[in-house]
């Protein structure tokens, strides 16, 4: 029966990503491209870029342009934890920081996601542990640098994505669709 390809769970997508990007998975001279994903929260708000340094969750009917997210494995960490780098290819990466005396925060900083991947170093502040969470159709992203803190969207539209702990008002579960 021909038809639409069956959607994979996040764990299946990550298993394929790690298999394809493991130290011998590609046998060509060219670097493989990061996987691109579309993400949206439980309120049907998609990731969009505001300026150069803020990723927000916006309704699909707003004036903002949906932003696809690049994903590459962090092979320096335990594969079973599905450690990944996330960014906006090719010039921006996601980083988790905690200003002195402040709350853990998500930053978008200038950087090349391929360089993070090629470094083969732990780079915990740039790493998220990803997993299917809640249902096969959703996933979550926990900061490797700050365990217990997850990528999150606000209850309000057009607010920057941040990092939150489970149990708060923020959304930490995201739907996904692979683009390439």
Automatic annotation (TrEMBL):
Keyword field contains Secreted: yes
InterPro entries: IL-1_fam, IL-1RA/IL-36, IL1/FGF
Main location: secreted
Localisation per UniProt entry: Secreted
Keywords: Secreted, Signal
Plastid keyword on record: no
GO CC aspect terms: extracellular space
Function: Anti-inflammatory antagonist of interleukin-1 family of proinflammatory cytokines such as interleukin-1beta/IL1B and interleukin-1alpha/IL1A. Protects from immune dysregulation and uncontrolled systemic inflammation triggered by IL1 for a range of innate stimulatory agents such as pathogens.
Name of the protein described by the UniProt record: Interleukin-1 receptor antagonist protein
